[in-house]
Amino acid sequence: MSLWHIDRLGHRGDGIAISEGRRALAALTLPGEEIEGDVQDGRIVSPRILTPSPDRVKPACRHYRSCGGCLLMHASEEFTSHWKTGVVEAALTAQGLEAPVTLTHVSPPRSRRRAVLSGRRTKKGALLGFHARASGIIVDLQECQVLHPAIMQALPILRRIVTAGASRSAELGMTVIHGPEGLDVAVAGGKPLDSALFHHLAQLGEAGDLARLDWDGQAITRRPPALPIGRSRLIPPPGAFLQATAEAEAALLAAVCRMTAGARKIVDLFAGCGTFTLPLAEAAQVHAVEGLAAPLGALDAAWRSAKGLQRVTTEIRDLARRPLQAGELRGFDAIVIDPPRNGAEAQAREIANSGVSRVAFIACDPVNFARDAKILTSGGYILSKVEVIDQFRWSPHVETVAEFQLR
Q: What percent of the chain has pLDDT over 90?
């Protein structure tokens, strides 16, 4: 076996290993460690740690070495915090940008209220959990330090749902959301929902006290799975995107509210179900723009049923292909933008020419965020602060919320 030195971590959390001019990736390693192992397809298979880093800690989960859900549980919290802020700083530096970068939130263990699990029927029952690293194999969860306890307690009934409705040849996708009304479960890839299966699933929903069970778009509902968002009660579409932890959502919202304080008219781009729109409407008129109809329908219904909110308008629009033009943006006092992982290059160019005085930019990919930030700063904006929100604990995933102010 070859000897290797871990120089640093890549942005996906793998160690960058160096040996006599060669480079390879090594999972579950830390900078400064000496390891040995053989390379296959650019990766060191089963690296053996010879000299552990002082930042190495004992992983808290029995599934850690196989499950792909957490990749940094072997690192101390202090190391991970510094590494995540460093990833953001490096991305900004690569674009010639500087700004204060601070870690303002780390979600606690067992706080993940939304998870997408994979399920497969077996001869003995069912597997349900996350995929193994870089594999189609499902790691059957027996414990998890990330998922909310309510989701963990429901795993037996969720496995019974997989057994009842999965074919032997296909994998189920199961989006599970924990809320005050109970679990909201959306299944994709199940068998056709005939009357017998509907009756069986309804019984399982009753046994597990599920708020809603949606089967490939067909709802088996016991009670509306309403979620509180500010003064509103949102009933999200099945499988809706939500912030993964309530604690991180609160941290993001607090930052956005600070950055838009005093604005009377706000546009919320990539608004989703209204995570920011509905609370911001307590003090400002908000125009919410989103590419999908279902989230905007849920947002609008929540606004109409709430009391004391200012006017909220909605617009279905694919912002990647048809961004709001600079002239459409000029009537607003502030912009909130929360794009998907690939960022919002086209929309950023229009914002850069809009003259809107303030922008709160939420991002989940530091490299794409830095690219978009460069567009804004080239258009006359100052990047005044960047806050790192560590919503996905023990993961290399890095989320930020940044404040831009027009010069």
A: 94
Measured from the Cβ of residue 155, the count of other Cβ atoms closer than 10 Å reads: 19
pLDDT tens digits for range 102-149: 999 999 999 999 999 999 999 889 999 999 987 889 999 999 999 999
Q: How far apart are CA 131 and CA 329, in angstroms?
A: 42
Catalytic residue, candidates 61, 67, 144, 364: 364
- Give the mean pLDDT of 377-391: 97
123 token code pair: 């001869």
273 is catalytic: no
Structure tokens at 179: 């809320």
Q: Any alpha helices (H) in 188-312, and if so which ranges? A: 195-207, 246-259, 277-280, 293-305
